[in-house]
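Supplementary Text 2. Reproducibility record for the structural model of the 120-residue chain.

All settings were left at their defaults, and a single model was retained for analysis rather than an ensemble. We include the record here because the model underlies the residue-level annotations in Supplementary Table 4.
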Amino acid sequence: HVQLVESGGGSVQPGGSLRLSCAVSGVDFSRNYFSWARQLPDKRTEWLASVDREGDDTTYRDSVKGRFTISRDNGQNTMYLRMNDLKPEDTGKYYCSHEWLSNIPPAWRPRGQGTQVTVS
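Retained model, structure tokens:
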């Protein structure tokens, strides 16, 4: 079964940067699309970004466009989210998902434990 392990979160000041990683096992990594989502302090979940199988096609939530970059390394079975110019409203728990998302369906649930990002 698929395992997604997020890491790389932490506490940063506004304007800071972090790079999140998602280590994937249990699926054929190169044949899957991947996405990042986050759960905000008020428990709302937001889709952030998605990447295609080759890493050539990406899409982003408007509020993170130009600041976040999603990427993947098919040789390492790992997906990344580079986050620059972080803002307090980016605070939340970040999750990866092995599918292409453009929003969060009501039934969506994270598979991994997530990684906490705090900007203050």
